[in-house]
Amino acid sequence: MNFKSGFIALVGRPNAGKSTLINNLVNDKIAIVTNKPQTTRNVIRGVRTDEHSQMVFMDTPGIHKPKHKLGGTMVNRSYGTFEDSDVIFYVIDATQKYGTGDQFIMDKLKNANKPVFLILNKIDRFSKDRLIETVHEWSTRFDFAEIIPISALKDLNVVELVEAVKAYLPDDIKYYADEQVTDQEDNFVYAEIIREKLIFAMEEEIPHSIAVVIERLHETDKRLNIEALIVVERDSQKGMVIGKGGHVLKQVGTLARRDIESKTGKKVFLKLFVKVEKDWRNNMMKIQRLSQVDE
Questions:
Q1: Which domains does the chain have, with CATH numbers?
Q2: How confident is the model over 68-77, as a mean pLDDT?
Q3: Given strand 146-149, what is the order of strands in its sheet?
């Protein structure tokens, strides 16, 4: 069997389960996962390698109607993967009703000239009859190369998805080392873990106003010292992030430290600071500096 490789973009609306899926596909947590939409801000690459293939999956920000420049940048990054990919996974939350947002994305996909897989996610919540009906309805809306129902969370049909996409891989070279599961730098990974804990701790719109930047990182064989800056847009948000007596910030720090220790196998010392940057999501220079999203 000849070796096959290629790039696969995971695109879709916010909260479709793209990040959960890419973590499943590479058997590692490389993308943060929350129950809040627009959590993913960057294109995150995950690599799955076996004896006969290497698949480079690209998790993307959810496609939505932007309300600020950061949102517009995120959506443009998603569109950019159309050109960079060999196959596109259009991931949908199959429990949600079909809407204008879905049609908007499919209109964009028509111009991609790439094989498009429809990934019907969250089928663990479906009856067999409803699943058959849903597959039929979606098959009439677009000329999909494949329609594959899965549950990324419950690990249903993910192996079948991997086997199906191999037939569409056009290359025959390895882009990454066998043991590599992502090309993200450590600073980015640690900042994302901290941001994930903040998103869980915060409510309503505050998580979308938060950025995390690693300002200092010192690593030895057994120890990791991290100083991270948390940026918000308003003074009131700063108070909420810190919490009464600093309890929110302490909780976030404890949870983030545990995750980083689990990932690195090292003792972690984590210091968190909070700063206000007014309306940073509408300033492109600040977006690039604070959110690690390129224009």
A1: 4-166 (3.40.50.300), 186-290 (3.30.300.20)
A2: 76
A3: 44-49, 53-59, 4-11, 87-93, 116-121, 146-149
